């Protein structure tokens, strides 16, 4: 079977890390007899330079016609003016909206060989970190009504958190499905003591919980969740939450693992078409130097194989190969520690490729 992958290298280190991810998919393809077809298209700052828009029509069309989308990163100082009419990140919002990607899956894993990388005390991470944040991506306050007004001669502004039952249902359902594939524990994070929209979330969670009797459901207020993530991260498995809470908590969860260059993400909708990208940005400070960590992008391809193509064994093979290379002591500059072997972007990709070839 041929899997068509719209490939968007983007800006900064994007092309460097994408090259390694493509290398890994090709190795998997050879080993398991799959054909991956990469259709390279432009988005972000480089698209603004070339076409005047961050998300050209041709790119969007290619993504819609593909089985999944692989993205490096977009943005950089050249296009960073927040008042500019066209900005690189509009490409991401456009892709999510146009492809109907309403869910963002963000794993935060502390790999055993990288335990030292966590900024938390060793005693706090002794039990490990393996969290999956399931964040709603196309609703809530980021998309609700907003505006400016005057109140008794004083300038004011407002943003609105609004969710309808269908929007909540589809993301909570994905939370339950994700929990079923992991340890069957689901933490619903909200602010139901204050927000009416959170109370509606709880109603929907209670109704759907009846369809998943094996899943243990807990609720936590977002302020407490922010605290618990640094107090005892091992208590969390799957977290399901709204757009704004997920935005903040997923960044916090990734920070406690200590290595931004290691974390992948998946944006999913109601079809198999998903968008896969590392959580880091375009890292302009190290772009072009051949030192970026490609593992977050490589691990994003594992998520693609699992969630878009249903190739679970192949996905595990990539995860295992990454662990093997880390266990053997190889590190890029962002995760280096004493006594370990420093490697560059391409070498790291080669090591993972070799580990896959050698794997049973
Ligand atoms: P960043 O993630 O690009 O970089 C933060 C720090 O982490 C930098 O010091 C960088 O060198 C380092 N880093 C990031 N990824 C790394 C990797 N793979 N290997 C080694 N080191 C790595 O965040 P930033 O500096 O805030 O943003 C830079 C640009 O990226 C901005 O224009 C921003 O808008 C954009 N951005 C894009 C995305 C995206 O495309 N999804 C996400 C975040 C930021």
Q: Overview of this structure, please?
A:
- With 360 residues, this protein is α/β, with parallel strands linked by helices.
- The protein has two domains: 1-105 and 260-360, Isopropylmalate Dehydrogenase; 119-256, 3-Layer(aba) Sandwich (Isopropylmalate Dehydrogenase).
- 41% of the residues lie in helices and 21% in strands.
- The protein is built from twelve helices and 14 strands.
- It has helices at residues 14-32, 45-51, 57-64, 90-98, 122-125, 165-181, 196-209, 222-231, 243-257, 295-307, 312-327, 345-358; strands spanning 2-10, 35-40, 68-73, 103-109, 130-136, 146-151, 154-159, 185-190, 216-221, 238-241, 264-268, 275-278, 330-331, 341-342.
- α8 (222-231) packs parallel to α9 and α10 (295-307) runs antiparallel to α11 (312-327).
- The longest helix is centred in the first third of the chain and has 19 residues, at 14-32.
- The mean pLDDT is 96.
- Bound molecules: nicotinamide-adenine-dinucleotide.
- Nicotinamide-adenine-dinucleotide binds next to loops.
- Its main location: cytoplasm.
Helical content stands at 40-55%
Average pLDDT level: 96
The CATH class of the largest domain: Alpha Beta
SSE topology string: EHEHHEHEHEEEHEHEHEHEEHHEEH
Amino- and carboxy-terminal Cα gap? 22 Å
The backbone outline, from C-alpha atoms, is globular
Question: Strand order of the main beta sheet, please?
Answer: 2-1-3-12-11-4-5-10-8-9
Which ligands appear in the coordinates? nicotinamide-adenine-dinucleotide
Total beta strand runs: 14
| Oligomeric composition of the shown chains | single chain
> By helix and strand content, what is the structural category?
alpha/beta
State the major sheet: 10 strands, mixed
What is the H level of CATH, i.e. the homologous superfamily of the largest domain?
Isopropylmalate Dehydrogenase
Number of structural units classed as domains: 2
Reported CATH architecture of the largest domain: 3-Layer(aba) Sandwich
Helix count, DSSP H or I runs of 4 or more residues? 12
Per the CATH scheme, the topology name of the largest domain is Isopropylmalate Dehydrogenase
Gyration radius, in Å: 20 Å
